[in-house]
């Protein structure tokens, strides 16, 4: 498969442009329509396959939860705790570390330094594998950690056992994420969609075989989870080595050079993303302290699972807008970057509103997918309104985060997330959940307020952004990280 062409602005859009390859200013409604049409085609040519791939990957998590839910309510809550707390903790950290490649690879590709992409990817492999080793105690001691956080003993014991069994899946992410970002930065996204699709089909088959036919219970679900995760990682590496000759020049000792600077950017990316992912993970932990924790955690986990399906779509759009912004900044096209952001935010908001309407229309019925328990289904229906509001907010917030990654603003967004989520949203949710009769709804309402504040602040930041200055900063970043061009030597 050939790489898609670089997704920057054409030399002419609304009319002849002399000596400029960026978009001209939008002055009329017709100009806006043309820009919207062009940007929509570019965005969705990247976002469509990426979103499909991420939805398939999330489907692996979701179907694991579904099969566990039909084993029993305790099993549903235990797997939900593992996937939404422990595994989500490591997922967020490793995805954040890997997201540094979205900035560097995207801007390097836009600047024509394609030869450096393979080096960046190898550097990220090294850093993420080291991070996996550091995360191991979290998996090994999951049961006492969950008990310390106040989870019911039965749920904590079962969740901890399942967590140890899925350790191989965590290590697969150290290979998966950097390889994925390497391909995304070049718009080689079709192959990601196919790999994700086949992995999901295989996962459902193996789950059914291990859980329903062999009767291995949660151990079978964990085995299927590990097999599917490593199948995705290995397939991506095979494609990179076999078909990405321009970006992949073989293993190189250069991957170890300047690794500390790369670590700092990776950590900034990780903190930014983790503060978002862990924020919604915390709602599960807090809910475990309420009365009837099995029903509370189970009903909330079903809502989070549905929200996750929509969230995976917007993570795909997040990745696409990151590619668009980083490519345009690397190509020195400030207006194209700005207009791409505007079009993406508007279209994402429309999708979020439609998703919320579907959830509200089916609020009494969608829980049957996950559980046969009538009590659990009724509990889910009571939370549907908050789920709808969350879906609307989550349609805009990931897009803005993608802009931040594409522009290299990770540290700024990390500070904003820390304030909005953990100084405003979390304490408010704790107060409403434990000091009022709202309980789980109160926890969720408080956290929605934090997300709303963060979204407004980031929208203001984007509104005030000087895109010409961002182009200059991208050029400086490429001079810093691309300085080793002459030193690129393959390992033999």
Automatic annotation (TrEMBL):
Q: Name one GO biological process term.
A: xenobiotic detoxification by transmembrane export across the plasma membrane
Q: What is its main location?
A: membrane
Name a Pfam family for this protein.
MatE
Please indicate if the UniProt record lists Iron-sulfur as a keyword. Answer: no
Membrane-topology annotation of the record: Multi-pass membrane protein
What GO molecular function terms would the record report? antiporter activity; xenobiotic transmembrane transporter activity
Could you confirm whether the keyword Transport appears in this record?
yes
Tell me the protein family, please: Belongs to the multi antimicrobial extrusion (MATE) (TC 2.A.66.1) family.
UniProt name for this protein: Protein DETOXIFICATION
Q: Which organism is it from?
A: Punica granatum (Pomegranate)
